[in-house]
Each structure stands twice: as C-alpha cells, then as structure tokens.
Write a structure and sequence with these properties.
The structure holds 2 protein chains of 2 kinds.
Chain A: E1 3-6, E2 11-14, E3 19-26, E4 32-38, E5 45-51, E6 56-59, E7 62-67, E8 72-77, E9 86-93, E10 102-103, E11 107-112
Parallel strand pairs in A: 2-11
Antiparallel strand pairs in A: 1-3, 3-8, 4-5, 4-9, 6-7, 7-8, 9-10, 9-11
Chain B: E1 4-7, E2 10-13, E3 19-25, E4 31-37, E5 44-51, E6 54-57, E7 64-66, E8 76-78, E9 87-94, E10 105-106, E11 110-114
Parallel strand pairs in B: 2-11
Antiparallel strand pairs in B: 1-3, 3-8, 4-5, 4-9, 5-6, 7-8, 9-10, 9-11
The chains are: A mainly beta, B mainly beta.
Chain lengths: 113, 115
C-alpha cells in the first residue's frame, strides 16, 4: 500500500542545535516533495520544494534533501530557535496524479530555550 | 495583502443540517482545493477545482459538495450525509492545477463540530 510517514512522536531539541525531521514514502514515485510549517489552529505555510533530480535545497536556516533511492526526504533547521516550534508537514506529488498532493501527518517540533 | 480567507473560524452543525464553509482568495489563482484534517492525520483531499465551473472529487468526497462559479470563491457544503463531519477544514489555492511544482497557499481553516 502507499504510505507517507513522518515521525509520529514530537521532537524536542535544545535551542541552537540542528533539528532533523524525516519523511519516508512507500510505493510512490514523487516528482516533487514539499515541506510546510503549521502552527496550532492555523493553515500550513509553504517552506521549500525539491524536485526528484535535486539532491538538496537550501533557504536561509532550512535545508531539504531528497534521496529517491532511500525513498526519503530530510528537513533540517540549523541554529534552531524557540520560534521554530511548530508541526512540519511533508507532501509529495507524482507526475501521474497531476492535481493531487499527498500530505504526511506531520512531526511536532519543540525547541526549548 | 493577498491571501485566502476562510469563514467562519468555528462552526457548529446540528443533526440533519447542511452547513456551508466559505473560501475566498484574491491571489488570482486558477486552482483551489478543500482538505480535511483530523488529529494525528495528514490532510485529506475532499474536492479540487482547476478552473471556474469545473471541479473534481478528491479522496473523501462523499457527503460533501462544492461549487466554483467565480474564480475567487470555492465554497464547501457539508451535507447531512457526512456522518462524521467533526474536523478542521482547510482551503488552499495554487497558480496552476498541480503536478506538485507549485506551492499551495492555505487559509486558516474552519473548525466544524457537531452539537
């Protein structure tokens, strides 16, 4: 069956450290993978998009990797801050399903001062 | 500021009642989407529309209906046929209909509960 999995347990990180979140998928062939941030009671906010032929994408303190062999994307936040505390969602899209993006259930990240 | 506006923020439904959730965007986006989010689960696609006067069912369309009479508006009706409507409903839009190479812009959701 098709699955997209993120760490179900909350991730607690000390301020200043690098937070690494994982997104694994099964029985998908994504052409694109996106990462979103969601705060409680709010809608998700787009952060980064990476294509299947890209290994890595960076934006300020954020870095995303995409390994189609391992069927995995990693999302890194360097020099983490308490304001980075939120739920982070990964989402993938296959070329064959042109109008659909499949979302993972998200990982809750908590940065302690 | 451009964005997506969902209203109301909280909505209560009585048994046997239809309710309509509003979604308006001023981003000039062609594509609009409705998702349902339940605790501990990912967003699930209810309906999507790529162009005015056209829309397609998503993965969980049963018990829901939509219309797309204007580019800016994509209201969702939760009908009495939807037996488990309690959830957080999110509306989104994007510049094109997909292949995932465009970010989706989300509203701040409507939380629907049963009285």
């Amino acid at each position: 069956s098709q699955k997209i999995e993120q760490n179900s347990e909350a991730l607690n990180i000390q301020e200043g450290k690098t937070a690494t979140l994982t997104c694994n998928y099964t029985n998908y062939s994504p052409a694109y993978l996106q990462w979103y941030r969601q705060d409680p009671g709010r809608g998700p906010v787009f952060l980064l998009l990476i294509r299947e032929n890209e290994k890595e994408k960076r934006k300020e303190r954020l870095k995303v990797t995409f390994d189609t062999t391992l069927k995995q994307s990693l999302f890194h936040i360097t020099a983490s801050q308490p304001a980075d505390s939120a739920t982070y969602l990964c989402a993938l899209a296959e070329v064959s399903s042109a109008s659909k993006i499949i979302f993972g259930s998200g990982t809750r990240l908590s940065i302690r001062p | 500021d451009g964005g997506i506006t969902q209203s109301p923020k909280y909505l209560f439904r009585k048994e046997g009642q239809n309710v309509t959730l509003s979604c308006e965007q001023n981003l000039n986006h062609d594509a609009m989407y409705w998702y349902r989010q339940d605790p501990g689960q990912g967003l699930r696609l209810i309906y999507y529309s790529q162009i005015v006067n056209d829309f397609q069912k998503g993965d969980i369309a049963e018990g829901y209906s939509v219309s797309r009479e204007k580019k800016e508006s994509f209201p969702l009706t939760v009908t009495s046929a939807q037996k488990n409507p309690t959830a957080f409903y999110l509306c989104a839009s994007s510049t094109t209909s997909g292949v995932g190479n465009q970010p989706q812009h989300f509203g701040d959701g409507t939380r629907l509960s049963i009285l």
